[in-house]
Amino acid sequence: MRISTQRHNTVARIALFTSSIFYTSAATAFTLPISSHNTNDVVGWQVITYSKAGDTPLKIAQRHSVSIQRLQALNPKVRHWQKQRIYLPYQVILPQLIQQQKSKITVNLAEKRLYYFNAKSKVLSVYPVSIGREHWRTPTPTKTTYIIHKKQHPTWNVPASIQRYYRAQGKSLPKQVPPGPENPLGTRALYLGITGILIHGTNQPASIGTASSSGCIRLYTNDIEHLYKQAGVNTPVKLIYQPYKVGFNENVLYIEAHPVISDYDKNNQQRQIIIEKLQNMTNNSKQLQINWSLVDKAIDEAAGIPVPIGKLFY
């Protein structure tokens, strides 16, 4: 999918090359115009913004639709977040299903991102999400499903399992929580064909980018409202676990590695799978040279950003 050069939203321009840097003052979702002729798996660009007086990591993260964790990882030297130059993580390797344009919504649990591809407008939107907490009785599943129902300002019907969990901690919850600031579903909810699993907003924005829900997929308020307008009933949804992604930007090969979630991969078999995939790529192409020490370093660091590991020599 070749990236178009048209302007799409308030993030000034779209850049194809990894080295490109652009400046922005505000953004909603991370969005990219995509065409079916694109040959690059690495999309997006490096963006610089400037924080304001009174800013905090959460305010910046919400304003630019990124998680606090990824924002801090990309800006490790920033201690005082007011009036600072801030790098935004607006570059990703597309999950394979998006590369093939086979899914409308893809949630990669490993990277805690939701991808929505609008086939009509050829626009890809990328949102940070929160997923089910580790070792919880109802983790976010890996499954293919679809949106069965949409609701603005939903009422939260508290599951019995969550009521029991809070009772065990000496707390109580009502059977229903009406719409409003105390409702953990936020302002919008997309109900999936999996019992008890929703894509919804949140009243806990600091949780975005973490594994902290009871199985549902949370988005920032602005992001769920943006997605809600686009994704209709019967929109296909694919929930996947893919901690390691590889792809090309022109003739340079990149890897994007994320921390392993033991609920989905107790023995880290995904590491061996991606190593074998890379080995097969070199076996099938004598022009491809991979720096294996860079591969190991990227996987060990699991920084969640595309890192160059090889190159095609023509």
TrEMBL record:
All residue ranges annotated as the L,D-TPase catalytic domain in the record = 103-240
What keywords appear on the UniProt entry? Cell shape, Cell wall biogenesis/degradation, Glycosyltransferase, Hydrolase, Peptidoglycan synthesis, Transferase
SUPFAM superfamilies documented for this protein: L,D-transpeptidase catalytic domain-like
A single Gene Ontology CC annotation of this entry is: extracellular region
Q: Which GO terms describe its biological process?
A: cell wall organization; peptidoglycan-protein cross-linking; regulation of cell shape
Short name of any one Pfam family annotated for the protein: YkuD
Q: Which GO MF terms does the UniProt record name?
A: glycosyltransferase activity; peptidoglycan L,D-transpeptidase activity
Say which family it is in: Belongs to the YkuD family.
Protein's recorded name: L,D-transpeptidase catalytic domain protein
Upper classification of the source organism reads:
Bacteria, Pseudomonadati, Pseudomonadota, Gammaproteobacteria, Thiotrichales
